[in-house]
Model the fold of this input.
Amino acid sequence: MNSAHHRSVPLLLAVAVLFAVPLTLSADGQDNHTKGAKPRHISEGQEVKLSDYLVPGKTTIFDFYSKYCPPCRAISPRLEKLHATHDDIAVVKVDINRPDVEGIDWSSPVARQYDLRSIPHFKVFGPDGKLKAEGDPAYEMVAGMLD
Done:
């Protein structure tokens, strides 16, 4: 073998490993389809594919929120407690605000993607990954879980 071939083997291995990593890993290297100790925070205003964050076998609650929304801030600790105390429930927080926007970012790509008109806005998926409720019915469902 020539020396050029020997140098290319590590490069080929690195490329192979890179492409073998599942696309569902988050930036911190965690599997997006598992429930962590705390609710996962996603989006920062960007479009998001919710199915990439469903937790199989668990009820997954997507909470569309903004830090500029007083009702969102009020319910957040209760959602965190729900996530922490119920093994069968995973909460995923979808931040509708882009980092450089102050105030509720109704024009963000994710707010437009889901046609959001009020927040907090919930989408609740069953353990089978199917949408169970969204909007007002989902809010009522989540409120019942918090009692």
Notes: The longest strand covers residues 59-65.
